[in-house]
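Tutorial, part two.
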Amino acid sequence: MLVDSEPIHVRLESELLTELGWPLTPEEVAVRFLGRTEAEMLLEIEERIPDLPNGWDASFGEKARAAFEAELHPVAGILEALDQITIPTCVASSGTHEKMRLTLSLTGLYERFEGRIFSADDVERGKPAPDLFLHAAKRMGAEPAACIVVEDSPFGVQAAHAAGMRVFAYFGGIMPAERLRNADVVFDDMRALPGLLARE
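Running the prediction step on this input gives:
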């Protein structure tokens, strides 16, 4: 939820998978893959489309990078929110470290979190397992029960609860609010986040 990469990513994935013979709308891609690791997504695609052309994933990566460089922005209101949040923060994402370095650097956010960026690549199991959030809490020196996770996917909400953490679900992106209803708090404006955290 720091950068508005999901709409770009699911659009490109929808176009690519449709070309490869698995027609999915961007909304269907979001529901199926948002919040999961890249490895899990690739495995499902390879199982669904057995005759993938050589280099298809590298080609997709190149297209995604070009689109990010042209279109990527911070999530609306996140800069104002971060300026007001005084408690310790970190990033715990299903994305790879390479992807996060790219997207956070393109939007000027990497320096804000450098040294506090954790990837599903760092743990055995990605979301919806709790491993990533528990790993991030341990590295931050925080008790899981004292942590609040800000998420935008059902898999992330499930992972946060499995870790024993409260979760605030942001539905200002592409995920419908009803799919995030299991979160402790659901909100649609990042500018509201500092106030929501202050009430905890």
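The two ends are 20 Å apart (CA to CA). In part three we will examine how such features are distributed along the chain.
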